[in-house]
Design brief:
The chain has helices spanning 8-21, 47-50, 57-69, 87-96, 137-155, and strands at 28-33, 38-44, 77-83, 100-105, 130-133. The model is unreliable at 1-5 (pLDDT under 50). The radius of gyration is 15 Å and the shape is globular. By secondary structure, it is of the alpha/beta class. It is built from five helices and five strands. The longest helix has 19 residues, at 137-155. The termini are far apart. Strand 1 (28-33) and strand 2 form a beta hairpin.
């Protein structure tokens, strides 16, 4: 567990930067236990390094937080992630009963919260967290744009 000496979204951005350094899509995630005010889990994308399409930052951070708290429901926890979660991650966030979701950049192509499947609007969704999008949006978006621009330059 880490004390909140920096904002959770800034910590998520540091995780995203670590992902970019590891040549992973730069998405970072942090879970805060609102009862203690402490960061209890951090993660970034590890799909390439794990060879696993499920190794999204959100799924990894949910697993770590559940392990840390010793339970499968995180109803007193808030999730901070640098990119709007995809439909798979949005559904996992619902299943975990996250209290509040904060995300940075919007994802019109692959998002599952405000775009695309809009998982939390589906009648089959059992839990809807409070959602706050656009937190540190410019910085989160620039990190992704820079990463993919460099990828395209390398491929040219």
């Amino acid at each position: 567990m880490t004390n909140l000496n920096t904002t959770p979204m800034k910590k998520a951005l540091l995780e995203a930067e670590a992902a970019a350094t590891a040549d992973e899509v730069p998405v970072g995630a942090v879970i805060v236990d609102t009862l203690s005010g402490e960061i209890i889990a951090t993660a970034h994308n590890e799909m390439c390094s794990q060879g696993n399409p499920l190794a999204h930052a959100e799924l990894l951070v949910l697993q770590k937080a559940c392990h840390t708290l010793g339970k499968g429901r995180l109803e007193t926890c808030d999730l901070y992630v640098t990119l709007e979660p995809c439909p798979m991650c949005a559904q996992a966030i619902s299943f975990a009963r996250i209290r509040r979701l904060y995300f940075g950049a919007y994802d019109p192509k692959g998002g599952g919260v405000d775009h695309g499947a809009r998982i939390f609007n589906a009648s089959s969704c059992h839990h809807i967290p409070e959602v706050i999008g656009g937190l540190e949006e410019q910085q989160c978006g620039e990190l992704l744009v820079t990463f993919f621009k460099q990828k395209r330059e390398i491929q040219s």
